[in-house]
Amino acid sequence: MTLIAIVIATLAAGIGSVWLAAGLMSLGALARSAPGGAGGAAQHLLSLAAGALLATAFMHLLPEAFESSVGPQALFATLLVGLVFFFLLDKAELWHHGHEHHHGDAADHAGHDPAHHHGHDHHAHAPQGGGSWAVLTGDSVHCFGDGILIASAFIADLRLGLVAALAVLAHEVPHHMGDLVVLRQASRNRRMALVKVSLAGAVTALGGVTGYFLVEQLHGELPYFLVVASSSFIYVALADLIPQLQKRLGARETAAQVAWLLAGIVLVTGVSALAHSH
């Protein structure tokens, strides 16, 4: 029963977030903005995702981990290591993209005249061909990790698993918008771009099944899985989502951001309470 719930939840989070992202973009509300763009709808999604992730980590996953027999010092150390690991992973990805752009600039200087080179804008360096596959590969690895985290939460408690799946879905929507933008720049076939990102999202289910058997074998290590999941959610919220919201806005826009952030927290807390009551 738990395995079936994990498969359904991971498919809903992995593929559902892709189709939700595509649906929002097709409405035109986010067609001209990446996940961190200036569009109001994008800002609202970022705020909602940040609130959901923080509530999941601090109100559910971490308390569940600290109720175990593992000492607080070991769990806090795991949390710290997890945050540093995701920071280093981000730095490695930024270095990789910077390295690619450096070689791209060198190739442009070697094969084109300066006037032609300067006539291109930043989008000229958008991933093309093989670059789009690199984006899909990275997205698949990320989705696989999300599946493992969802499985670990489900094994701890059904409501935790549901909340974790909702949090993953919430924060993957803006992420998949970015993927769709990149793939649509590499190819004008929007349907194929949607299919490719959906397949990457489906890897979440593979991670969920793997996580189910892995966590079952290492049940005593479950608190560490929950803390690692928490470190992932906290890092994404504080290092990726919230910095994109730190812009000078008017009182009305700022109030809307805070409202959507609180809505994410209330959503996660409410779903958890509802699942627990049933």
Blueprint of the fold:
Blueprint: H1 2-26, H2 40-66, H3 72-111, H4 114-118, H5 130-156, H6 158-186, H7 190-217, H8 222-245, H9 251-277
Helix pairs in contact: 1-5, 1-6, 1-7, 2-6, 2-8, 2-9, 3-8, 5-6, 5-7, 5-8, 6-7, 6-9
The span between the termini is: 16 Å
Strand content: under 5%
Q: Determine the structural class based on helices, strands and strand pairing.
A: mainly alpha
Strand and helix order:
HHHHHHHHH
Ranges where pLDDT stays below 50 over 5 or more residues in a row are 29-38, 113-131
> Overall mean pLDDT score?
76
Number of strands: 0
List keywords for this structure.
278 residues, mainly alpha, 9 helices
Tell me what you see in this structure.
The structure is a single chain. The protein is mainly alpha-helical and 278 residues long. It has one domain. 83% of the residues lie in helices and 0% in strands. α5 crosses α8. The protein starts with a helix and ends with a helix. Mean pLDDT is 76; it is low at 29-38 and 113-131.
Could you write a compact summary of the structure shown?
The protein is built from nine helices and no strands.
